Amino acid sequence: MTTSATRMEAACSLLAESKRRYLLYLLAEDGEKNIEDLITQITAWEHEQPIETIEKEARQRVYVTLVHNHLPRLADYDIVEYDLRSGDIVLAEGFDDIKPLLKQFKQTEDVPEIRKRPVL
């Protein structure tokens, strides 16, 4: 049996990692994105650099962690669905459960550009 407290703990644990939050902020804008677009923006935010200056190696590191860690974790909780062959990532039904908490996290992010993006 899953309690509300257990679900809240899982949501907090998932959102504690910045790459997962960044991915979800971007997906929340229209419900779907391509992995290449996500990697580019997430890398820029993490390195606090313009997209044009991001190095290939930095993008590759973000790709590896998304594919081997963050996307599978989010999929396990039915927050996202993804297809690595096409690169498509979409929000799943479980996203609605963490949306209010994600909205709170967004207001406290260190990267000003994130706070300025449209509200979820």
From TrEMBL:
Protein name, UniProt field: DUF7344 domain-containing protein
InterPro entries according to UniProt: DUF7344
Highest taxon listed in the record's lineage: Archaea
A Pfam family recorded for this sequence: DUF7344
Domain DUF7344 residues, every copy: 13-88
